[in-house]
């Protein structure tokens, strides 16, 4: 979660997309924060590809991280929230960004930098061709293509449609990469390459010298170039060009006819014939003040330019400056893009051609020049400067510039609000939020949200026992909608660990001080996520308590019912039982690293996906296989919760360190010493491990102490049922579920846990 601020949120700036202009703007906001402004980034890809390095990535000169900007650390550096989602539209009247997988995101100012993709508007192209963008999809397809080349005895025939810089570079990069595979000993027939273009030249927007140089290179590399012949149809196994001629191919990459997504125009923005957003030289939409666009998706009125990354990079600074002005209510200033620019186009190997105006050059030195420029650009984002921590403050002048008078007055009153019950969020705000949501209604809830009173009232089924638990913590992810979902999963896990059926929940919420509108929007997101998970679990939200405080926290008191005889407890393990763990561990170390901007966004995204997975089906599965004991792995880590189980059961246990499933990235963050603040407390449990020194020398050892949020279940299952139970868990989607230990009779030693290797289970 981004750092807390002493300044209430006055304005929301939403950046849609992680394009080149936006990453530059984010870095500049991080260098010079704007107190009172909350920045939210909505990104389909957590790792933004740098187009200048894509051919080098395909050719094998760069790895994934060298060619991508990690939006996670960058967003944290900028004090921004990062929402991993895809924008699907704008509600221009309501000033909201519509998203595919979460509630709409409100904005005061919004900027769009989502790029463009090749328009697959030729018959059959959508079914049989791979667009060069989005780059993430192309990279995944390229990995499949390499495997296909290795495995196929037939000669692969690759076609690239579009002979601009992207198409030419990509063709030569693929050819170089496959040549490297062959040189490394891979045996396969030499692939055939075809390059198609409706233009009469390769690189039609470049000068004659550059075109001639690349025509020669393509000829030398054996690429069949089809010029002045437009592709009119793509079929399975071939492309058809003007005149009816067909060329047999196995793979088609589409690098021409780019267009913007449809949703900007469908939302009501003024767009050009390609669907690109028309913007003034200020980069503000011509049709809607407060909406900005940059990069390839923007069409600057009066300054038409080709779609090239250099223009998006140059727009970063003026975009950031005008976003600041718009947030303050000041007029934006125009920006004039340059007409000429240096173009550096690689030839697949470490060789490149440079062109500017009428001039062109080529050589290995040009590639080294390009490499230095590209790496210097990427280092600005992958080597972010250290920033001082602490609250960001704003003076009265800042407040007056950012907020209208009525909001300033509201915040002045807010600064004098009482503690205790005086800190409650207004009832009308909560009423409006709950009216928009749809919490589950249960017949056995006699008094709840339908008929609010001083307390909720439930009927208890005859013969059942009530199971209750409570937990709460401060936000650990940027997205309040996801935070609501994760918190519910975490709180319900105690019920599932005991074999109980959830029935009701009371919310405990603390929201940061802010205007009524911002508080209401935050509660909307938070409770929408919570209600989604509660409804799926069959639990009714029956009430709760909401107050204001320094930072966002959320918790739930949840209740359920169970048959007394069917309760699962920590005690009950029997010698010979196998220990099953249903989820990987590592959330503690990963989020500790994330706070320090040392975790990759894909690692955090993987951890979030795990935390969003409910333990409901896992609980049902271990019970069907006669589990003798169960608990959920949370704050005390795997070792701490296993110690509780052995103590309650009067047994010992062997734990296989190399069998414990670990989240991607957690090994790296543990090795770097990036550990949770609760880790030192948990490490005191070392005394529970017999002969601890051999285990302690293993680099994975700290993971057994790692505290988990919304962790998995740790269950003991009879030996004869363990394999079948494990197979069913994996079939249900708990793909990292593992057998991590075995229960042993109580020994004479003081330490109940022995840590061993997998083959000793």
The rough form would be described as globular
The low-confidence parts are 389-393
User: What CATH first level of the largest domain would be assigned?
Assistant: Alpha Beta
- Look at the helices and sheets and give the structural class: alpha/beta
Based on CA atoms alone, the radius of gyration comes out at 29 Å
- Characterize the largest beta sheet: strand count, sense, and whether it forms a barrel: 7 strands, mixed
Structural features, described:
The protein starts with 10 loop residues before the first strand and ends in a 5-residue tail after the last strand. Residues 389-393 have low confidence and may be disordered. 34% of the residues lie in helices and 23% in strands. It has 23 helices and 38 strands. The strands form 11 sheets. It has a 7-stranded mixed β-sheet with strand order 33-36-32-37-34-38-35, sandwiched between helices. A 5-stranded parallel β-sheet has the order 5-2-1-9-21, with helices on one face. With 761 residues, the chain is of the alpha/beta class. It is globular and about 85 Å long. It has 4 domains: 11-116 and 260-345 and 362-382, FAD/NAD(P)-binding domain (3-Layer(bba) Sandwich); 125-256, FAD/NAD(P)-binding domain (3-Layer(bba) Sandwich), CATH 3.50.50; 417-489 and 504-561, 60s Ribosomal Protein L30, Chain: A, CATH 3.30.1330.10; 568-761, Alpha-Beta Complex (Phosphoribosyl-aminoimidazole Synthetase, Chain A, domain 2), CATH 3.90.650.10. Helix 13 (427-436) crosses helix 15 (516-537). Strand 23 and strand 24 form a beta hairpin.
């Amino acid at each position: 979660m981004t750092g807390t601020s002493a300044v209430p949120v006055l304005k929301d700036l939403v950046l849609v997309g992680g394009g080149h202009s936006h990453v530059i703007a984010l870095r500049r906001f991080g260098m010079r924060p704007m107190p009172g402004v909350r920045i939210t980034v909505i990104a389909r890809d957590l790792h933004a590809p740098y187009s200048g390095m894509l051919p080098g990535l395909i050719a094998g000169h760069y790895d994934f991280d060298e060619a991508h900007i990690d939006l996670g650390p960058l967003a944290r550096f900028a004090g921004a929230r990062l929402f991993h989602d895809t924008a699907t539209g704008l509600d221009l009247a309501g000033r909201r960004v519509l998203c595919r997988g979460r509630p709409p995101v409100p904005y005061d100012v919004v900027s769009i930098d989502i790029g463009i993709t090749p328009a697959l508007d030729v018959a059959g192209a959508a079914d049989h061709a791979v667009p060069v963008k989005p780059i993430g999809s192309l990279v995944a397809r390229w990995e499949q293509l390499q495997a296909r080349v290795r495995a196929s005895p037939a000669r692969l025939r690759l076609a690239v449609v579009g002979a601009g810089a992207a198409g030419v570079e990509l063709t030569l990069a693929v050819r170089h990469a496959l040549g490297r595979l062959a040189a490394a000993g891979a045996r396969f027939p030499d692939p055939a390459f075809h390059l198609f273009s409706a233009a009469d030249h390769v690189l039609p927007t470049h000068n004659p010298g550059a075109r001639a140089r690349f025509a020669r290179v393509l000829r030398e590399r054996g690429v069949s170039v089809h010029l002045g012949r437009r592709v009119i149809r793509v079929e399975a196994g071939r492309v058809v060009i003007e005149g009816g001629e067909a060329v047999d191919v196995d793979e088609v990459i589409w690098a021409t006819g780019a267009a913007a997504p449809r949703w900007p125009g469908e939302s009501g923005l003024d767009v050009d014939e390609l669907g690109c957003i028309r913007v003034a030289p200020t980069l503000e939409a011509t049709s809607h003040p407060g909406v900005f666009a940059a990069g390839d998706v923007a069409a600057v009125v009066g300054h038409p330019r080709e779609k090239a990354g250099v223009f998006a990079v140059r727009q970063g600074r003026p975009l950031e400056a005008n976003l600041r002005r718009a947030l303050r209510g000041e007029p934006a200033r125009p920006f004039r893009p340059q007409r000429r620019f240096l173009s550096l186009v690689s030839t697949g190997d470490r060789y490149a051609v440079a062109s500017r105006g009428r001039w062109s050059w080529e050589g290995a030195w040009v590639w080294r020049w390009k490499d230095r420029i590209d790496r210097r650009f990427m280092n600005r984002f992958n080597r972010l400067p250290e920033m001082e921590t602490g609250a960001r403050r704003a003076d009265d002048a800042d407040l007056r510039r950012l907020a209208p008078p009525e909001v300033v007055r509201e915040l002045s009153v807010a600064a004098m609000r009482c503690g205790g019950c005086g800190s409650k969020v207004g009832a009308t705000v909560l009423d409006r939020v709950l009216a928009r949501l749809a919490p589950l209604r249960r017949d056995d809830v006699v008094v709840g949200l339908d008929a609010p009173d001083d307390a909720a009232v439930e009927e208890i089924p005859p013969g059942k026992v009530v199971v209750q638990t409570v937990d709460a913590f401060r936000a650990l992810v940027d997205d309040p909608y996801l935070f609501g979902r994760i918190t519910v999963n975490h709180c319900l896990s105690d019920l599932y660990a005991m074999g109980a059926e959830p029935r009701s929940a009371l919310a405990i919420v603390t929201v940061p001080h802010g205007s009524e509108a911002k508080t209401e929007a935050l509660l909307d997101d938070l409770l929408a996520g919570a209600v989604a998970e509660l409804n799926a679990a069959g639990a009714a939200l029956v009430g709760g308590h909401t107050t204001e405080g320094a930072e966002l926290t959320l918790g739930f008191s949840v209740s359920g019912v169970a048959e007394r005889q069917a309760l699962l407890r920590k005690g009950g393990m029997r010698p010979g039982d196998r220990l099953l763990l249903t989820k990987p561990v590592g959330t503690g170390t990963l989020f500790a690293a994330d706070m320090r901007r040392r975790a990759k966004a894909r690692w955090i995204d993987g951890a979030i996906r795990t935390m969003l997975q409910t333990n409901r089906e896992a609980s049902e599965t271990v019970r069907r296989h006669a589990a003798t004991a169960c608990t959920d792995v949370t704050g005390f880590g795997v070792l701490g919760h296993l110690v509780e189980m052995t103590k309650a059961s009067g047994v010992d246990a062997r734990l296989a360190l190399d069998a414990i499933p670990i989240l991607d990235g957690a090994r790296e963050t543990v090795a770097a010493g990036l550990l949770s603040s609760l880790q030192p407390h948990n490490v005191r449990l070392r005394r529970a491990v017999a002969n601890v020194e051999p285990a302690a020398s293993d680099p994975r050892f700290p993971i057994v102490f790692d505290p988990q949020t919304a962790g998995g279940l740790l269950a003991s299952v009879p030996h004869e049922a363990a394999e079948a139970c494990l197979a069913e868990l994996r079939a249900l989607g708990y793909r990292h579920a593992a057998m991590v230990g075995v229960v042993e009779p109580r020994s004479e030693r003081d330490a109940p846990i022995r840590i061993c290797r997998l083959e000793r289970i």
